[in-house]
Write a structure and sequence with these properties.
Strand order of the largest sheet: 1-3-4-5-6-8-9-10
Strand content: over 45%
CATH class: Mainly Beta
Radius of gyration: 19 Å
CATH topology: Porin
Structural class: mainly beta
Oligomer: single chain
Distance between the termini: 32 Å
């Protein structure tokens, strides 16, 4: 993954050097996030119920003919919801600063461009909270990222994007982030419990200047 991210950076530099058009855009919308977990020593996995969060960020579109490179910086919510033993639920609310670098193909249509693309991302843990919803009410537990925290400080993965950008600059955008690395910190309090990986579907609107 590190080699893939380095390659993405090199491609970005090449597009900046030879790109014909550079634009700046903003996007924001809803995330529908899930967590895929597996216990230590088990080959089976479990997918959580969906947790609704949000994303907001900015991106640069470096265009060369029908191809463009889109590095971005996004504050994005991930997580999931699982059943607790007392008949309630536990919500994992995880916030990341995420840097995706997507290679995008644009197909011109009458009202603008249809686009599709994908690439790697690197995400840095910003804030996390567990909410226990039970018969006695809600309990909020602050969790942490880092070498001694509950979750790893970084996550890597790949994402796919698609959307419609109108000639006015307004756009409708969808993305799917597929986490590749275990976010459970096996060197911290959760050592030996297994793996957790993120799965996030995003729907947003935005504008390109």
């Amino acid at each position: 993954m590190k080699k893939l991210l380095l390659l993405a950076v090199l491609i970005t530099v090449s597009f900046v050097a030879f790109g014909q058009k550079i634009a700046i855009g903003l996007r924001g919308g809803l995330n529908f996030a899930e967590l895929q977990s597996s216990a230590a020593g088990s080959s089976s996995s479990h997918t959580s119920d969906s947790f609704t969060s949000f994303s907001v960020g900015a991106f640069t579109d470096i265009k060369f003919n029908n191809l463009s490179l889109q590095p971005a910086l996004v504050l994005t919510g991930k997580g999931g919801q699982v059943a607790s033993g007392d008949g309630g639920t536990i919500q994992f609310d995880l916030r990341y600063l995420q840097i995706p670098v997507n290679l995008v193909y644009h197909a011109p249509v009458l009202i603008g461009d249809i686009y599709i693309g994908g690439g790697p991302y690197l995400a840095f843990g910003a804030a996390s909270t567990l909410t226990e919803n039970g018969p006695g009410g809600n309990a909020y537990i602050n969790t942490t990222f880092g070498s001694t925290g509950d979750f790893t400080s970084t996550e890597t993965g790949i994402n796919g994007i698609a959307g419609l950008q109108f000639k006015s600059g307004f756009l409708v955008h969808i993305n799917y982030d597929f986490g590749l690395t275990n976010i459970l910190n096996n060197n911290g309090p959760e050592a030996g419990l297994g793996t957790i990986k993120t799965r996030t579907l995003g729907v947003s609107i935005g504008f390109v200047f």
